[in-house]
Every structure is written in structure tokens, then in C-alpha cells.
Design brief:
Elements lengths: L1 H18 L13 E7 L4 E14 L4 E14 L3 E10 L6 E4 L2 E3 L2 E2 L10 E4 L2 E5 L5 E4 L4 E8 L2 E12 L10 E7 L8 E2 L2 E6 L4 E6 L6 E2 L3 E6 L7 E8 L3 H9 L1 H24 L4 H32 L9 H36 L1
Parallel strand pairs: 1-13, 2-14, 2-15
Antiparallel strand pairs: 1-4, 2-3, 3-12, 4-11, 5-6, 5-12, 7-11, 8-9, 9-10, 13-19, 15-18, 16-19, 17-18
Helix pairs in contact: 1-3, 1-5, 2-4, 3-4, 3-5, 4-5
Length: 359
């Protein structure tokens, strides 16, 4: 009987663990998705080199990704090649350099008749990648420039800074880099991509879908993407390096430690009530535990989460948004459930003592 009651309260606490990260506002930071250049005419890319540097933004104390991308393009003859840069949540290109000469990029303007690869259909703007293929786009996420190519090999460089998406609720913020590779299929051919991720001394890559790197050190990771057209995009997740104690605490999870602590207190409370029944002082033990044990779960959550935050970010505080509101809404429910369970426990223990007295 007593074990079932403990299991019942454990289930209530588990539900509290699942809702502990509830957030009344948008918990996610801004996120940019960028892509390869899209040609309006057929051309051949011999090689693409992508350098991504992780830079710290001192204004909002987050990290951003600085892209420097170079395309080596082969042209059979001199030509003007219209190119479109697609990006979500990006202010624009910082630099566009064609054969060592910097040019300007502009947002797509549907009223400009020279954009023969752009059309308006069924309430949406569409862009043509050659032949009869059309894709819907948002004009706010597209930038245009014309590359004057000479016969033979040409260099096209683009530079920009992108937001990396992250969850504000996480103690260890992991930032996401997302880059679209599907435009490579719209070139007449597309060679391999050399991708260099420059992490510096404070950052590390926690996850990626690029496979085993060609080369990796503490500050640099190098991948080679042999067939870009077979992979629609790549995603890399980076974050700050943390100490071994912080890693262990996050691996166990502060909420799990809080749950274990509350279950231990529940067990001790019931044992204490049973002990006090023998001397007739169980009412005080019952009341004291009823006040302390239900609130202990959130107390333990606050402590372990604040400790993890201190070990990682140097601030001893609970950083979950909406935490206080969550406590105010759920703690009364936990008190009610806990009192009902202790009421049953009280009756069970009293029945045991009365039975012994009759014997």
C-alpha cells in the first residue's frame, strides 16, 4: 500500500518535470538559414570553399556565424551571369567580390523587367533555375547581383553574418548553423565543397550531419562534401566548452536530481510519521512534512539548475522563463495530491496500530 502511494506521488512529480520547461513567451533565438548561390543561366562550379567563423556578439551576449564563401566558376566564354542569394532572416550580404572586384547586391524587385527568371503566379513569387523548373520564394529573403565572368576560371566570393538559432531555456546554449545545398543541382555541374568550421578556443561542435571530418583539431574542423546535390542541406550544432562537473550535471539532468531528492524526502517523511505514531506525536510530523516535501521539488530544481547555470555561465540563478508562473500554477495541485496521499497513509498506519492494540 505504502509503495503504491510513493509511486503515485512520483508520477505527479514526473509530470512536473515534463512541464518545468514551460515558457509563456517565444523561447527561441533568431535563426538564419542561408543557401548556395542560384544561377539564372547554366554555369559550372569547379569548387566551393566555405569558411565559417564563430563570433561573439557583445551587444546581446550570443554567438553568430560569419560566412566567407568562394565559388570557382568555369565559363566557356565571357558572360554576365545573374545570381540570386537566398537567405531566411538575414539583413543581406556584407560583401560580394567578383574576380577581386567588389560589387553591390540588391533585393529582388519584381517590377524590374530584367529579372526574366522571376515571375508572379497564384499569389506567390517564383524563381526559375533554368529549363521549366520554378520554385516559390519570399522576396524579402532573396538578394540579386550580376557576375561579369571572363572566359575560363572565375572567383565569386560572398561574405555575410548569420544568426544561429538557440533555445533560451537551455542552460548550455547550443547554436544551430543551417546551410542549404539543394541549389547545386541547378548549376550545369557542381564540384566538391571544402567546409572549414573555425571554433576558436571556447567553442566545440556538439552535433552535425556531415559525417566524419577530413581533419579535426580543438579549434578547426574540415569536411569535404563530394556530392553536394545528394544532400539537401547540412546542419551543425555548436556551443561553449564546459567543465567535467558541468557535463556530469547536465548528463544526469537537474530535474532528475530534484525528483530523486523529493522522493527521498517523501520516504523519510513517511518513516518519520510511522515512528512518531509510536509516541503519539504524529500530528506534528504529518503537518511539518506536508509543508516541506511538496515544495522541496521546486526548491531542489532551483538549486540544481542554478548550480549548473553557475558552472556553465557563471551566474547562480534559474534561467527558465515562466518558472515562477509555473510554480504558482502547479504547486497548489502538488500540495492537494500530496495531502490526499498522506491522508491515506495516515489512515493506513492508524489501522495498523489499532489492529496491533486489539491483538
Amino acid at each position: 500500500m505504502m509503495n503504491r502511494k510513493i509511486i503515485g506521488l512520483t508520477m505527479i512529480l514526473l509530470l512536473a518535470v515534463l512541464t518545468l520547461s514551460a515558457n509563456m513567451a517565444n523561447p527561441y533565438g533568431p535563426h538564419s538559414i542561408t543557401a548556395q548561390l542560384v544561377p539564372a543561366n547554366n554555369a559550372k562550379v569547379l569548387h566551393e570553399r566555405i569558411n565559417i567563423h564563430i563570433v561573439h556578439d557583445t551587444l546581446d551576449h550570443t554567438y553568430k556565424s560569419q560566412f566567407a564563401v568562394e565559388y570557382i566558376v568555369h565559363a566557356e566564354q565571357s558572360m554576365n551571369l545573374p545570381l540570386v542569394f537566398l537567405a531566411l532572416n538575414l539583413d543581406g550580404l556584407e560583401k560580394v567580390i567578383i574576380n577581386q572586384k567588389e560589387i553591390k547586391s540588391v533585393p529582388l524587385d519584381p517590377s524590374d523587367t530584367k529579372f526574366s527568371f522571376l515571375r508572379f503566379k497564384d499569389g506567390y513569387y517564383e524563381i526559375s533555375y533554368g529549363k521549366a523548373e520554378w520554385e516559390r520564394i519570399n522576396l524579402n529573403d532573396a538578394f540579386y547581383f550580376t557576375a561579369k565572368l571572363q572566359k575560363g576560371e572565375n572567383s565569386i566570393k560572398v561574405q555575410y553574418r548569420a544568426f544561429m538559432g538557440f533555445d533560451r531555456r537551455d542552460i548550455l546554449k547550443k547554436y544551430q548553423i543551417e546551410y542549404l545545398l539543394f541549389p547545386s543541382k541547378y548549376w550545369s555541374s557542381f564540384g566538391p565543397i571544402d567546409l572549414y568550421l573555425h571554433l576558436g578556443n571556447k567553442m566545440k561542435a556538439y552535433a552535425q550531419n556531415l559525417g566524419a571530418p577530413k581533419e579535426q583539431t580543438d579549434t578547426l574542423i574540415h569536411w569535404i562534401i563530394e556530392s553536394p546535390g545528394k544532400q539537401g542541406s547540412f546542419t551543425i550544432e555548436v556551443g561553449e566548452k564546459i567543465s567535467c562537473p558541468a557535463q556530469a550535471l547536465l548528463w544526469i539532468h537537474p530535474e532528475v536530481l530534484a525528483l530523486v531528492g523529493s522522493i527521498l524526502l517523501l520516504y523519510l517523511h513517511i518513516r518519520y510519521i510511522y515512528k512518531k505514531y509510536k509516541i503519539g506525536a504524529y500530528r506534528y510530523a504529518l503537518l511539518l512534512g506536508n509543508l516541506i516535501v511538496p515544495a522541496s521539488f521546486y526548491g531542489f530544481c532551483w538549486f540544481w539548475t542554478s548550480l549548473a547555470n553557475f558552472l556553465i555561465n557563471g551566474i547562480f540563478e534559474h534561467n527558465a522563463r515562466g518558472y515562477i508562473l509555473l510554480v504558482l500554477f502547479t504547486l497548489p495541485l502538488i500540495y492537494i495530491v500530496y495531502d490526499l496521499i498522506l491522508f491515506v497513509v495516515d489512515r493506513s498506519i492508524r489501522a495498523q496500530f489499532q489492529k496491533r492494540q486489539r491483538e
